[in-house]
Amino acid sequence: MQQYLTSEIFDKKMIKYSTVRKKLNLEIEKTENLGLAHLTHYFQNHINGVSQCYKVPAHNYYSEITEELNILAEPQMALQQLLPLKYDVPFPPLADYEFTFIDLFAGIGGFRIPMQETKGKCVFTSEFNYWAQKTYEHNFGEVPFGDITKLNLDIVPKHDVLTAGFPCQPFSISGKMKGFEDTRGTLIYNVFQIIEKHNPKVVLLENVKHLINHNKGNTFKTILKGLKELGYKTSWKVLNASDFGVPQNRERVIIIGHRDIEFDFSKLKTKPKRILKDFLDKNGPFEFLNEEYTILSDYKVQESGLVFIGHRNKSIRIAGVRPGTEHLSRVHKQPNRIYSSLGIHPTLPSQESSGRFYIYDEGEVRKLTINECYRIMGFPDKFVKTNNLAEAYRQIGNSVCVPMVKEISKQIKAQLL
Ligand SMILES: C[S@@+](CC[C@H](N)C(=O)[O-])C[C@H]1O[C@@H](n2cnc3c(N)ncnc32)[C@H](O)[C@@H]1O
Q1: Residue 256 β-bridge partners
Q2: Yes or no: is domain 282-368 CATH 3.30.160.20?
Q3: Which residues are catalytic?
Q4: What is the average per-residue pLDDT within 221-233?
Q5: 10-26 confidence digits (pLDDT tens)
Q6: Where in the chain is the domain with CATH 3.40.50.150?
Q7: Which protein residues touch ligand 1 with a CB less than 6 Å away?
Q8: What's the CA-to-centroid distance between 166 and ligand 1, angstroms?
């Protein structure tokens, strides 16, 4: 049956985002779909100075699809008449904000939540993974632009802070350590191009701790050199999520650049360590470990706060293992290990799409639930997860600790903006 957006709906002030989205019954395309990205970015930015970046393509796309889908009642509704929209999403755009930012390699918005909480307005997003784009839209009411390597930089608006949790890639270093030019062909090069064009006041980069030693330290040096060439003073530090109020041992290197001021990491306020137990679901359903396992009688709290308390009784590997250490092969892989709920949890990795994170709680061994995974990353319970479980595990493992970014964002405001 043909559905129509009736003028009755349009006459009401403040149409809900979900209503418009339902009527514009369009799937996020798996190819480069700039139309929906333009349209949703325009919806969120139609009254600030940013709208010129999205207005024309958004209007063109809207007339194209409304004609194609024939969803409008007569007389045809101009795009302008939909505005302003009422955002019925967990993290609606801010009406009052104190700074602007862009969210590159946005994933599911681990940067966006805390930056919005500290009064930042997101004016541009890029993320090319279809599942992450869907989760992002459900939470923020905006479809990210896709592949950063294919972006026309003209659509990126001016902004105060650039955030990027970019994938780590090797550079083919020429030996001359040229910095910016040496990164050509990698994703950080695309980030540098945006920095060169827009000169944001602040650049905030995040990566795995290993980035520091990657390619004998050359990758990291090249990135810092590139930022220096672009005119930024940088400082960096490895931070651990467990120092910011969540029970997860997750170390990440944070690089912050500003034109004149060196960010002072010592001003970040850390919190006492918490334990997993305080973050667990009260009621199940829980997936208990339905196979043999061993709980060690002799265990200790590691310096990091982890309590490795047992392991699944997987068969012992002999081949390729140093004699006398065969029993250790059982616990080499994280999915075989069991951690106590009285300690913290190891890093949630993005590769573990079946969620084999085993914990020992109340005398039983069970998997961490998907809600618990999001909680120990600091995502609020109102965050909407994808119902594709494997993707939900991947997405959280790829993301960033929300309270850690919130503290960084507060200090960026205090020190650099
Ligand atoms: C380490 S994750 C960052 C996750 C994010 N910080 C979050 O909170 O969820 C890197 C992200 O970059 C995305 N990505 C990789 N290459 C990309 C590209 N060429 N264009 C846009 N996004 C890309 C991946 O899909 C992934 O979601």
Answers
A1: 204, 235
A2: no
A3: 168
A4: 94
A5: 455 688 999 889 888 78
A6: 90-271+395-417
A7: 105-108, 110-111, 126-129, 132, 147-149, 165, 167, 187, 398-400
A8: 6
